[in-house]
Design brief:
Length: about 475
């Protein structure tokens, strides 16, 4: 108990320190000019563009006039008034910065709660497979606390929060979606999914992990192991006793059973929330072209890659070089590339829906039209939820050095190209290519490490089924 209290106290100290650190950075002159960095702010997440859209709205013009604002009308109605309010003697847009700090803190707390829920479900799965001795390993860490602190202290998260980007709000709703699905709070999961998809479109693909979480529950070892365990003890009195004990503990005697009821409720609530969002947006833009103008200026802007200003992605450079005749073809290729990966990954990782959501978020962050470091901050935090399962992941140090190197080189190359005039676009695009390669390696190695972990569990489960007890002391290679 004392150790648990110390861990909780230590977590809250670090969490509060991260908030104080953000508040200190907000008071730096012009916030270190982070709001103008292409790695931090994109045409979809820039607070400057949002303020411009709100000014157009206040001038009785369409917020989508010109090519400045391409975000949600709901975000404009919430953050717009905060961009024009000034407090004498305080930094500009202080209220918006405080809003982002609160969003980051809430996101970290939700990640922590999700990690605790995942660890609890995983513990129950190990006990049902009679592998409880693995949980006595002192090296097992509290993944929820680690993931939350990784999110709060990740430099990507900090510069996104301080740099006047709306990415913290998008990340918050994505995490609320996954938390609601993990705990089977269907209205919350549907609300988060609808709002997150409304803000940036790409969270639409998270519907598959959400369905798996609602149907099967949180991540667990492969369901085949539970079936083998039940069949191996069929007809034995011990099997009946074990089943009764599981039912008394509140565990399902059939862990492979898919529950359709929560999924049906999810689509009902998602339809309800979507209708409410469309009604509110339609009311807001009814004088400026209606919903069609909004769809054209938001989702159409994302899908057509209309703004070719530099960012840490790869699409801006490619479409700046490609001939207009081939532009539509390659637009289809790049966007379908994300969809092609959805089904194979869902089939292979169906027993780990939360990890599947992490993979989807990482892939979309890599291939989306206007990526930023705020997207990477989210999936790096989710990676911390699987720190115990991915302990044997290869190239960890290489990836860490790669992310640090790209983070340092990207501003330098941008400065040489834009301000010094001693470089060209290839300098900056080289760092974007390296960044994409590191993300690919991270996704591939994390999936490989997770599948290797599942194979280890399968071997241990088979050994326990044959011998009746776990005697294995050394890790299986």
């Amino acid at each position: 108990m004392e150790g648990t209290k110390k861990k909780k106290t230590r977590f809250w100290r670090w969490a509060i320190a991260s908030v104080i650190f953000r508040l200190i950075l907000i008071y730096f002159p012009k916030n270190l000019n982070l709001s103008s960095r292409p790695e931090v702010s994109t045409p979809l997440t820039s607070l400057r563009r949002l303020a411009e859209g709100y000014w157009l709205k206040q001038s009785s013009m369409s917020p989508y006039a010109g090519s400045m604002y391409h975000g949600s009308p709901l975000l404009l109605s919430i953050l717009g008034p905060l961009t024009v309010k000034r407090i004498e003697g305080q930094p500009n847009q202080l209220l918006c910065s405080l809003f982002f700090v609160i969003a980051d803190f809430i996101t970290a707390l939700v990640i922590r709660a999700t990690g605790q829920n995942l660890q609890k479900a995983y513990t129950q799965s190990f006990k049902s497979l009679e592998l409880a001795k693995l949980l006595e390993n002192p090296e097992i860490l509290s993944s929820g606390d680690i993931a939350a602190l990784v999110y709060l202290w990740n430099p990507f998260t900090i510069v996104t929060c301080v740099g006047s980007s709306t990415s913290p709000i998008e990340n918050l709703f994505i995490i609320l979606t996954l938390y609601g699905a993990c705990t089977r709070r269907v209205p919350l999961a549907a609300f988060g999914w609808v709002i997150a998809s409304h803000l940036s479109l790409y969270p639409l693909i998270l519907v598959i992990p959400v369905i798996l979480l609602l149907g099967y529950g949180p991540d667990a070892p492969p369901r085949k192991l539970f079936l083998q365990r039940n069949f191996s003890k069929s007809g034995d009195n011990f099997s009946t006793t074990t089943t009764k004990q599981k039912e008394q503990r509140g565990q399902s005697a059939e862990p492979t059973l898919f529950l359709w009821r929560p999924v049906a409720f999810f689509f009902f609530w998602a339809s309800l929330w979507a209708c409410n969002v469309l009604v509110l947006c339609g009311f807001y833009v009814k004088e400026y072209g209606g919903l069609w103008e909004m769809f054209k200026s938001t989702y159409g802007f994302i899908l057509t890659v209309g703004d070719l200003s530099p960012n840490i992605g790869v699409l801006w450079y490619f479409f700046a070089e490609v001939f207009d005749f081939f532009r539509n073809f390659f637009l289809i290729v790049f966007h379908i590339n994300i969809l092609f990966m959805i089904l194979p990954l869902a089939i292979r990782l169906s027993h780990r829906p939360y990890f599947l959501a992490f993979v989807y978020i990482a892939i979309s962050s890599m291939l989306k039209s206007y990526p930023s470091v705020g997207d990477s901050a989210l999936y790096l935090a989710l990676l911390g939820l699987f720190i115990n399962e991915l302990a044997d992941m290869q190239f960890s140090f290489f990836l860490f050095c790669g992310y640090v190197g790209v983070s340092l080189l990207s501003p330098v190359m941008h400065n040489l190209w834009i301000w010094r005039g001693t470089g060209n676009a290839n300098f900056y695009f080289a760092t974007a290519m390296a960044y994409a390669c590191f993300q690919i390696v991270l996704v591939v190695e994390s999936v490989s490490a997770m599948l290797k972990h599942d194979r280890m569990i399968r071997k241990l489960s088979n050994t326990t089924a044959r011998d009746g007890s776990t005697i294995l002391q050394e890790p299986v290679q």
